[in-house]
From TrEMBL:
Residues 134-211, 247-306, 387-449, 544-611 form the Zinc finger PHD-type domain. The keyword Repeat applies. The keyword Iron does not apply. Residues 66-111, 176-224, 233-279 form the Phorbol-ester/DAG-type domain. It holds the Pfam family C1-like_CT. Keywords: Metal-binding, Repeat, Zinc, Zinc-finger. It comes from Brassica campestris (Field mustard). GO terms for molecular function: zinc ion binding. This is Phorbol-ester/DAG-type domain-containing protein.
Amino acid sequence: MNRIKLPTHKHPLYPTPWVRSCNGCYRENGCTKDGYRCYEYKIFFHKKCAESSLEINHPSHSEHPLHLSIPEKFSESKNCKLCGETLIYMFYHCPLCKFVVDTSCIKNPPPDVIDHPKAHEHSLVHLKHYYHGTCDFCEKKYCSRYLYKCFQCQLKFHFECSNLPLEITYPFHPKHPLKFLTREEHHFSDGKCRICGNELGRRFYNCSICKFSVDVACVKNPPPLTILFSKAHDHQISLMPRIISFNCDACGLSGDRSPYSCQQCDFMIHQSCIDLPEIINVNRHEHRLSRRLQLSPGSWICGFCHKKVDWSYGAYSCSICPNYAIHSNCAIRDDVWDKLELKGISEELQEIKPFKVIDENLIHHFSHEEHYLQLNEENITCSGNIRCEACVSPINYQAFYSCVQCDFLLHETCANLPRKKRHMYHDKPLALMVGDMMEFDCSACSQCSSGFRYNNKSFNIDVKCSTLSESIFHESHGCTLYYIYGNNKECIACGNRSYCTFYCDDCKFGLDPKRVVLPKTTKHWYDDHPLSLCYRVNTKGEYWCDICEESVEKYWFYKCDDCCVAFHTKCVLGDLSHLMPGRRIITYHDELRIEVMQTSPRFLPRCYYCRSRRAVPFVLKLFYPNQTVFACSSDCLLFTHQVCKFLY
């Protein structure tokens, strides 16, 4: 069995060799074998919790059967009638009586008082309706549903911690007993738990003879001594509770303690790599990738981090593209993998083409079903008002399709955009959506747009950003730039720091995605000639923007070589250049009606909010019941509407 879909959880669940903490019952009652995990939420379930019955009869409420529920069905918080704890993930309820009880209490309700706890000399009282507390034994929050308190010492204990003695015999260190100590009482080896490698807290278990230390979590929930799990290895593997330097055969990365090993095969694996998925899709490659125990001998480069992949260790590779591979840890990153394991799932059907060919120059495109589109391949020069419906860029000298009956136009390249694609900007597949009257903000460049978009729920990227790949060549730099997520590097083009950049690690050169898609040449009515983007390579002297008359600093700008003048990129393009001029759009701001209007020397309206007459190429005309006003930017649009919606 590769995955299951259960009514207890909305995402697929996958078998895992053990469960330490269950998100169904929120109990840490020892490590349980053969559970399930959800890759999407990074949570685990006991097998019994994941397979809980949808309806049960229980003595706590004998009048009616109880139904299994999940929090999405309730907007208000619920408290268990037996233990008083706040219900978090799943619980049983009676729709007639509003009786609710959590799954832990269904199986084993907690006692009100623990008279003789092993971890403390006094009795402990259950704190009902008190979930937000810290256990004084393990010093952790939220790792148990039940919290008990000693009112003599004012100490609190998780239910599981209260039953832990101060001296234990530990299965992974049977030679000597382990004593419960604090950091002040004993000097230990390297400050990390021998089993999991996490930093030890102030309290832990220790053998002073062997310098063996283990945290409370691994005492409460130790991993199994042996595992037989085919996804990890063909043979049974055993935990080796030692400080030992090794390379994981699944991911190729080094480890320093407690691997699982197979002596028969000289095989070692990190605990975290045991249930790596076998067949996956990543947003850096168009085909499925399969996990390999080792690659064929040769020189391999990771398709994500572009560093060397050691062929003798495990990695993911493509059966269609013989030279493509990716490190195991790179492949399962949150921003790369879509969290689905595909073993046993058939490939998707053949991709749907964006248009049907009518004849050699005529097509029927899905975005314009009412009419046919005709191909124009001659070097036809169009004015800046004639724009592509998909990318909202001017139709200049490129080949384009035009409607035989109306003014609908598409660049030839935009007409061939795939209906679905995977993209580095999102971990899930994206679908091509046709531009309509609703505007959207591109999740990559933050530009407001009304053209075509690739979409997945609330995520949108415009057509221009969708054409970027994870490695690009840009005229401003001689090396390949790689897309890196989460590096917070400074953009060389604007000086801003961005969470995502196209970056050259050797030269420390980075570009914000918004600057990568800046047009190399453009037009503005303020100057009669084409304007070219200047990267300040071999430029000397100080420049002043001819539009706003302010200094052009050390960053990128547009210039006219014929007139020897410079312009800020924001003055030339504004932030409305991805909206179709002359169209009316409806925004998400209370269905506000807006018209996109092109400026000119004779039409330069005053912005309602900032009161300026900016020479940006486009402004927005806002229609209210008793007045129409203008906004020169998306920010001014937002503030203008906040004021005007109360006035009109």
